[in-house]
User: Fold this.
Amino acid sequence: MNLQAMFRDFNPGKFLVWLCVCVFTALLSLRLDKLLDWTYWAVFAPLWLWKAFVVAGALVANIVWIKNPHYRLEGQSAIQYRALLISLGIHLFILLFELLLADNLETGRHSWLSVFSPLIVISLVSIAACIWGVKHNRSIELELYCSVNLLQFIFVALKLDGYIAWPWEVVLVPAWVVVCASIVAVLYSIVFAGLLLRLPEVNADRRRTSLNSAIAYTCLVAPLLCFLITLASKLNGESRNSYTSIVMPLYITYCTRLAMAFSSKRANQWWFGLRKDMCQFLLGVCPLLQEYANISYALPVPQDDEQQQALEEPNPAAETPNASALTRADTDSRGSKKKKKQLGHGRAKDKEVVPHISLEVPD
Assistant:
């Protein structure tokens, strides 16, 4: 295990986001099952923490950007700063949706269409953000999630307001489409990983990477499909399962997401105005952590007793060579010397002798 590689590829932003979402899911399921007597404002506390980090990081980055104009000439600084502003705008719209959702769950004084209106607006904006992110090779996970779920947000809002009387299986059709497309991608990754495992000429690291990707994608999509099926049955009144049991498959997805945060693309280096990776900044602030970050270790592989004795016992045949082998080596060396001498005499005869001084005689 190489801690240096883990710190180099670690994305603290994604780790924080999925940790907060995991805690929020657990609190919300307990609140819906009436096992937790908290207000919805307290249940949404992990999401408030997530948005507080985003707003604070963007605020500090803007101050550093304004006070240091020469930083704008450093490589990809301008592109990363624009990506930060786009991400900040999306998070603010999501924060507005969360505020309206918590207030509506507490008081019920808003229509669900107005509650989902920030998500509908940001889904339209996210389409342009996805195009910009692909053009500049930026991470577009949040923007892609918002853009592909535009119809799903509209259908859920209309269903909760009573404008449509469809069953929840039909309301969740956009989610089924996204999940089916993900299943096709998962099957492709599994087949590709199986083919690479059967090809001996492929590098071992590449085969390991493809196998890990196939396992990770399977752990992401399969629990999500189980969650959607059980949730639709619960909302239709056909199931008596508790919400706590319904969200259980999602914890597998969350754990996979937390593990993938250690091997994903680096976060935007302009958050909090650091202009470097978060882990590099922490190692610079706390030099004592560098001693642990440079450690790499491997678990010992146990060997059989017979193999260990064979390695420890000396081999007399290998230490004392035979006399015949020595005589054979001597004769080979003598024969090679004779051949070299003969070749040297032959080359000397073939060479033309050129005098060092040539006298020119006049006519």
Remarks:
- Confidence is low (pLDDT under 50) at residues 315-327, 347-351, 353-363.
